[in-house]
UniProtKB/TrEMBL annotation:
GO molecular function: transaminase activity
Family as reported in the entry's similarity comment: Belongs to the group II decarboxylase family.
Lyase as UniProt keyword: yes
Record InterPro entries: Aromatic_deC, PyrdxlP-dep_de-COase, PyrdxlP-dep_Trfase, PyrdxlP-dep_Trfase_major, PyrdxlP-dep_Trfase_small
Names of the cofactor(s): pyridoxal 5'-phosphate
PANTHER family xrefs: GROUP II PYRIDOXAL-5-PHOSPHATE DECARBOXYLASE, MIP05841P
Keyword Cell membrane annotated: no
Organism (species): Kribbella yunnanensis
A Pfam match: Pyridoxal_deC
Keywords: Aminotransferase, Decarboxylase, Lyase, Pyridoxal phosphate, Transferase
Name used for this protein in its record: Aminotransferase class V-fold PLP-dependent enzyme
Bilayer-crossing regions: none
């Protein structure tokens, strides 16, 4: 039977173009309730085949109103980037080619594209030349993979082979973490069998940066991993990595730089190259489609010891890079292809401009919101703005109102015990006009909610 590619792919292309072209003006938040989405998309289990083109049409109709326009220049929730044209198109082709990028033998071009992208990334971030790289699903798995390598290495130095003997009976590992680390660090430690009680929280300063004076007394007490951070998820603050690495020479220093690492391309973070591993996301600030994370280690042997797999039916070649040696997946999508295209399309200067523009837009937000009477809580040194729009109750209500109003979308948080709106500027298209329109929408919502409060 001749497959009909034209029908469903043509429909998908048409829907894609409509979506992308309307992105700058469509409401940013979702409007459909879960019950409505279930009704539109649900129904009986299909008992037989359907027409692929009609399925694509029905799917695209069904999700309408349930999509959050995270690719919009006025989406500021969590830390989520959009997708650049080159990375999106390359990602489509990665799907069309449908390569299993685990093994060189199964996907030579995908393996080489990733090898090249890996070299470019190491150069962009200024990491040591021997740095090993893995293409994972996100920051969570990047932290997991790096910490698996760290677990192997600190125990190897203590005379214990964790890959063979596991953790039962192993020397204890102390994991020194900033008090404001990202929750994925805790989760990675759970996945790794270390558990969250292995963590020793290290005091941070007012912006969430690990304090070297608080770290120093905790060092030198057996196998130790230090989890530092480049880019606090609330404030954007970057830990003093140079000081941390100088102090923790006997420990494995991991840097969670899910978004902050990208800032080192234009404004080098001092001492970053002295760490032992780094995690970052391509789906955040590089604006590559989901899902795409990156893990780097300065110790390829430890990285491979923790991740690699050999089986009798697999084909390996000492001269070739098998991606599965560097990530926890076995079979997997060739997600490095989109990363490669993104880097080629932006180049070093494009990445620097993208990051600088987002930071400038975050500053613009802070300035304008301050002028409008809001309270900016953090030092806006990167792309994150924490703003308070009245008391806790009013702030929370405004966050909800802004999400419903549709001009822009930002999420809420509780920071140092106080409710705040979190604004993260991570999209490659965000312009001054987007910021101005968003500030207007936020101020309007504040006025409406304030009026509602006085009415009781
Ligand atoms: C987003 C983020 C993560 C988790 O990354 P995912 O891609 O969502 O898995 C980890 N650390 C920090 C600092 C982050 O901002």
């Amino acid at each position: 039977m001749e497959p009909d590619w034209e029908g469903p792919l043509g429909e998908a292309y048409a829907r894609a173009m409509t979506y992308l072209q309307n992105l700058p003006e469509r409401p940013v938040g979702a409007s459909a309730a879960a019950s409505e989405l279930r009704r539109r998309l649900g129904g009986e289990l299909p008992q037989g085949p359907g027409n692929p083109t009609q399925i694509i049409e029905a799917l695209a109709d069904g999700v309408e109103g349930g999509l959050v326009a995270t690719g919009s220049g006025r989406f500021f929730g969590f830390v989520i980037g959009g997708a650049t044209p080159a990375s999106l198109a390359a990602d489509w082709l990665a799907t069309v080619w449908d390569q299993n990028a685990g093994l060189y033998a199964a996907a030579p071009a995908a393996a080489v594209v990733e090898e090249i992208a890996a070299e470019w990334l190491v150069e962009l971030f200024g990491l040591p030349a021997q740095t090993s790289v893995g293409f994972v699903t996100g920051g969570q798995m990047a932290n997991f993979t790096a910490l698996a390598a760290a677990r192997y290495d600190v125990l190897r130095k203590a005379g214990w082979d964790v890959e063979a003997d596991g953790l039962i009976g192993a020397p204890a590992i102390r994991v020194l973490v900033g008090a404001e680390r990202h929750d994925t660090v805790d989760r990675a430690l759970r996945f790794l069998g270390l558990g969250t009680r292995c963590m020793v929280p290290i005091a941070v300063d007012g912006q969430g940066r690990m304090r070297p004076d608080a770290l120093a007394p905790e060092l030198g007490q057996g196998p130790t991993i230090v989890c530092a951070q480049a880019g606090n998820v609330n404030t954007g603050a970057i830990d003093p990595l140079d000081d941390i690495c100088e102090l923790a020479t006997d420990a494995w220093v991991h840097v969670d730089g899910a978004f902050g690492l990208w800032s080192t391309v234009g404004t080098p973070i001092r001492g970053i190259e002295k760490a032992d591993s780094w995690a970052t996301d391509a789906h955040k600030w590089l604006n590559v489609p989901y899902d795409s994370g990156l893990v780097f280690t300065a110790h390829p042997e430890a990285h491979r010891a923790a991740m690699s797999v050999r089986a009798s039916y697999l084909i390996h070649d000492a001269e070739k890079r098998d991606p599965l040696d560097y990530n926890p997946e076995f079979s997997r999508r060739a997600r490095g292809i989109a990363v490669y295209a993104a880097i080629r399309a932006l180049g070093r200067s494009g990445i620097v401009e993208l990051v600088d523009r987002c930071c400038a837009m975050a500053s613009r937000f802070a300035e304008q919101l301050r002028e409008a009477g809001a309270d900016v809580l953090n030092d806006v040194t990167l792309n994150q703005v924490l703003v308070r729009l009245g008391d806790d109750d009013l702030t929370r209500r405004v966050v909800t109102a802004v999400q419903q109003e549709g001009t822009a979308w930002a999420s809420g948080t509780t920071w140092h015990g106080r409710a705040a709106m979190r604004i993260s500027v991570s999209n490659w298209t965000t312009s001054a006009i987007d910021v101005d329109r968003s500030v207007e929408a936020i101020t309007r919502c504040v006025e409406i909610e304030q009026a509602r409060s006085t009415q009781g």
